[in-house]
């Protein structure tokens, strides 16, 4: 549990360095093989910003999005469901 909390703080700190005081969402993925990933997301009407900790590595990505019927679609077709308010 301590490791998971540490990962949450890592992704949150990374995103807040880039966008201080932004509203954000923490997403935790836990799989049956005991692996996990932790994401911190912040979205605007044009981009989704994701700090992710997976496989002992911190990554950051920006995804160009568009809204179709209230659902965010990335430029590669990936569907992202809004979990917070977007600016």
Model description:
The chain is of the alpha+beta class and 87 residues long. It has one domain (2-80). It is built from one helix and six strands, in the order H-E-E-E-E-E-E. The chain has one helix at 2-18, and strands at residues 25-30, 36-43, 47-54, 57-68, 71-74, 79-80. The protein has a six-stranded antiparallel β-sheet, covered by helices on one side.
Overview features:
6-stranded antiparallel beta sheet, 20% helix, 6 strands
Enumerate the spans where pLDDT stays under 50 for 5 or more consecutive residues.
Answer: none
Quaternary:
single chain
Question: What radius of gyration results from the CA coordinates?
Answer: 13 Å
Q: Which percent bin holds the helix content?
A: 10-25%
Q: Average pLDDT across residues?
A: 87
- Output the strand order for the largest sheet: 1-2-3-4-5-6
Q: How many domains would you count in the coordinates?
A: 1
Summed up, what is this model?
With 87 residues, the protein is α+β, with helices and mostly antiparallel strands.
SSE blueprint:
Layout: H1 2-18, E1 25-30, E2 36-43, E3 47-54, E4 57-68, E5 71-74, E6 79-80
Antiparallel strand pairs: 1-2, 2-3, 3-4, 4-5, 5-6
């Amino acid at each position: 549990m301590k490791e998971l909390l540490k990962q949450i703080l890592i992704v949150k700190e990374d995103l807040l360095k880039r966008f201080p005081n932004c509203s954000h969402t923490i997403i935790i993925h836990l799989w049956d093989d005991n692996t996990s990933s932790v994401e911190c997301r912040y979205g605007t009407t044009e981009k989704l910003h994701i700090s992710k900790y997976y496989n002992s590595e911190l990554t950051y990505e920006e995804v160009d999005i568009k809204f179709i019927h209230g659902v965010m679609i990335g430029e590669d077709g990936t569907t992202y469901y809004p979990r917070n308010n977007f600016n």
